[in-house]
């Protein structure tokens, strides 16, 4: 990585850690202060903080790319053509909390969860970690980490709730065969779902820890740097031994073949996105960096033959999942649109970031 890029990354780490610490110190009631309510359900400071952390990198990158702004003293409260980093960050974090809260409310109304308060979540987290600790002490098998972090455990529980909500779907989320056929026909016109007579790619993945924003950002930076080197003509295999650059990021290099023997697996909902990225490349073309299954990937096409398009029945389930996800996202957007959101400015304005 270039010296300026390393300086920017270091500045991100220092400034972000500092503003989070100050935020907690200024919250005299330990994070229980209410920032906003969504249909009378509270969003607390403690609940908002992980989202501030999650969105900080994208806000820093936005101001770096648009204004070449480097984090430092006064950065978060400075105005850049009327745009203030701290206000943008707080809005992004609150918007995500509102979207989460309307889904939690929907889950509560459908009897999928009883208590959606963040305080109850923290009690559940403490109880789960105590259970895991006791199990380990008693030499019992546990699955997953020894202890869950706040962000990871919340992600697990919320993902489970979303899955259950989709299972309780009303007619608005049902995907018809006609919709699947229409999507498929349009995709074919756009040259998608090409049948892989044989496509062979080289790939490098940079795996990050789910829920760890610092790990995720580091993985993305490494992938972007490698992609630039590919574009400059460097050999793929010469760049594969990168584990020494960051011990927290697991780097893997390999080759993958897509053909008639792998088509069913390639177009399963869980693998559909990666397949489309890989087989859409021309021979010798290097993909943009893309996120897939808790890792950032760079892929290069090295061999390809053309044998037409996949039949509808081969990609039916994958398309159905994609359309259901789109409908669910629209459903959530509608919940947000019709929710009554009240921001407690006395608390919201005191979230000072430095």
Strand content: 5-15%
Helix content: 40-55%
Output the structural class. Answer: alpha+beta
Tell me the number of helical segments per DSSP (H or I, 4 or more residues long): 11
Series of H and E elements: HEEHHHHHEHEHHEEHEH
End-to-end separation in angstroms reads: 27 Å
Write out the strand line-up for the largest beta sheet, numbering strands in chain order: 4-3-6-5
- The overall average pLDDT, rounded, is 83
Total beta-strand segments: 7
> Outline, from the CA principal axes?
globular
Sheet having the most strands: 4 strands, antiparallel
* Unreliable stretches covering 5 or more consecutive residues: 1-30
- Can you tell me the number of structural domains? 2
By oligomeric state, this entry counts as single chain
* CA-atom Rg in angstroms: 23 Å
State the main characteristics.
single chain, 354 residues, alpha+beta, Chitinase A, domain 3, 2 domains, 4-stranded antiparallel β-sheet, 3-stranded antiparallel β-sheet, 11 helices, globular
Structural topology:
Elements: H1 3-26, E1 34-38, E2 41-44, H2 45-67, H3 85-109, H4 118-137, H5 150-167, H6 177-189, E3 194-207, H7 213-231, E4 250-259, H8 263-266, H9 272-279, E5 290-291, E6 295-309, H10 312-338, E7 341-343, H11 345-348
Antiparallel strand pairs: 1-2, 1-7, 3-4, 3-6, 5-6
Helix pairs in contact: 1-2, 2-3, 3-5, 3-10, 6-10
């Amino acid at each position: 990585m270039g010296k300026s890029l390393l300086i920017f990354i270091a500045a991100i780490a220092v400034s972000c850690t500092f503003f989070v610490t100050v935020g907690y110190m200024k919250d005299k009631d330990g994070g229980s202060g209410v920032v906003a309510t969504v249909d009378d359900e509270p969003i607390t400071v403690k609940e908002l903080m992980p989202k501030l952390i999650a969105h900080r990198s994208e806000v820093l990158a936005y101001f770096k790319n648009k204004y070449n702004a480097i984090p430092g003293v006064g950065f978060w409260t400075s105005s850049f053509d009327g745009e203030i980093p701290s206000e943008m960050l707080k809005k992004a974090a609150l918007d995500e909390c509102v979207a989460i809260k309307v889904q939690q409310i929907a889950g509560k109304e459908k009897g999928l969860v009883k208590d959606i308060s963040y305080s109850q979540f923290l009690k559940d987290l403490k109880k789960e970690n105590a259970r895991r600790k006791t199990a380990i002490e008693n030499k019992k098998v546990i699955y997953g980490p020894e202890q869950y972090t706040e962000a990871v455990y919340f992600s697990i529980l919320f993902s489970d709730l979303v899955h259950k909500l989709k299972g309780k779907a009303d007619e608005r989320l049902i995907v018809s065969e006609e919709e699947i056929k229409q999507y498929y026909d349009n995709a074919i016109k756009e040259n998608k779902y090409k049948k892989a007579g044989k496509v062979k790619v080289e790939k490098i993945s940079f795996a990050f820890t789910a829920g760890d924003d610092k790990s995720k950002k580091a993985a993305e930076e490494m992938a972007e740097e490698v992609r630039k080197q590919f574009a400059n003509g460097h050999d793929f295999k010469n760049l594969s031994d990168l584990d020494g650059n960051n011990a927290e990021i697991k780097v893997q290099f390999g080759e993958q073949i897509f053909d008639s023997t792998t088509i069913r697996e390639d177009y399963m909902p869980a693998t559909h996105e990666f397949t489309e990225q890989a087989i859409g490349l021309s021979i010798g073309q290097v993909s943009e960096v893309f996120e897939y299954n808790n890792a950032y990937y760079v892929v290069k096409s090295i061999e390809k033959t053309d044998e037409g398009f996949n039949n509808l029945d081969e990609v039916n389930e994958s398309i159905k999942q994609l359309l259901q996800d789109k409908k669910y996202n629209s459903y959530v957007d509608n919940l947000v649109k019709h929710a009554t959101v009240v921001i407690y400015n006395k608390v919201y304005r005191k979230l000072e970031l430095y």
